[in-house]
Amino acid sequence: MIYIIYIILLIYNLSILVQVRNSTDDLLHIFNNHTNKITGLEIIPGKPAFLSSSLDGSIGMFNLVNFQEIYRLYLKEPSCGIDIIDENQFLSYSEREVILWNFNNLTDCFTALR
Fold it and tell me: What is the C-alpha separation between 37 and 113, in angstroms, rounded?
């Protein structure tokens, strides 16, 4: 069976949850890996995965096939958001800095480009 997957970010009451639902709105999974409000959510181009940033000072990468966390990046301060630039890069921003990150294609992790 093939599912069309989309993500709903629950922002009500400063939510820390991400729900994954299929095209008929059935709940497939709930990610609750952040400990503070989610500030950004982006699908990674060409991969069954997404990034989320949070005021807890972390960015998580999650697999949409097996619903596992792939990697977690811990920042120096709370993240105000993230933006995907292309299939190779994304940026994260806080109140004081913007960091450009490169996806490491061999390990699906991150490298900071400063």
Answer: 26
Q: In the numeric block, which tokens belong to residue 15?
A: 């939510």
Q: Which residue has the higher pLDDT, 55 or 27?
A: 55
String of DSSP letters for 64-97 = TTT--EEEEEE-SS---EEEE-SSSEEEEE-SS-
Find the mean pLDDT for residues 63-89: 92
- What whole-number distance in Å separates Cα of residue 38 and Cα of residue 100? 19
How far, in Å, CA of 108 to CA of 91, rounded?
15
The residue extents of the domains of the chain are 35-113
CATH class of 35-113: mainly beta
pTM: 0.80
pLDDT at res. 112: 59
Cα end-to-end distance, the chain, whole Å: 43
Contact by Cβ (8 Å): 43, 5: no
